[in-house]
Design goal:
The relative contact order is 0.20. With 291 residues, the protein is mainly beta.
Length: 291
Amino acid sequence: MSRHTIRKGDLEATVESHGAQLVSLKRGGHEYLWQGDPTWWGGQAPILFPIVGTLRADRAVSGQGPIELKRHGLARLYDHVVLSQSENEVVFELLANEEMLDRYPYPFALRMLYRLVDDGLVQTFEVENTGVAVMPFAVGGHPAFNVPIPGFKGSFEDHVLKFSRPWTYATPWVDKDSGLIDYANSTQLVDDSDTLPLSRDLFEHDTCVLEDVPDGTISLVGPQGHGVRLDFPGLAFLGIWSPSDAPFVAIEPWAGIATRFDEDDVFEHKRNMQFAEPGEKKRYSFSIMPF
């Protein structure tokens, strides 16, 4: 396992080869990314592939055979190889091996690109189908951010999530035991408003699952006006999560979601499943802009 740091201006990001996980994102010396603590959650910003969330009992069937994957898939569990690195960009690659193919029977190459630009960090998934069958998959990010950001003041409840414009949305419940999504029950998050105050009650039913967020953008803002903005055009879903009294909130852009209670267990039938033809490469990006 190795760590790789890239820099641009007052921005600095560090990515770990294990899981190709972002482990630090600083602006002006302030650490915006959650640094991991098993008291609440030892992760920081795992990449999610080839599933987002959970399958029912961690299993599904597919056109190429059975699939057995635990929550958020397998890419986060392996060391990724560094393909290239420059001052402001680093690229990792993970190739399917026999162990992975026993659990997910679709040969693939996954490349993770991290690039610093003037405003922040762009994180890109490049998924290549290296097999001979159409490949179903999902991808997603899971970055968590310190609340409050070190160096700035404020309690968890002093922070808000801001949208680009007012909208109305109710989040389906997520079953804490199975991780499945229950669209028969929901909680109103916003009602003709562009602001969602952070509170512990938001996570009574685990993760908030947002769909079609206005303009594909959201900002976490503290009482002193500092925070992070995420832009995720082309990614249909956003997860928001914070466990118990944890001093962080995860803001997670996704292409795909966990299995719904009212879905079957055919992998190809999952909501918002992505598909790559043999030899095809697909790209998905989101950006994180600290301010």
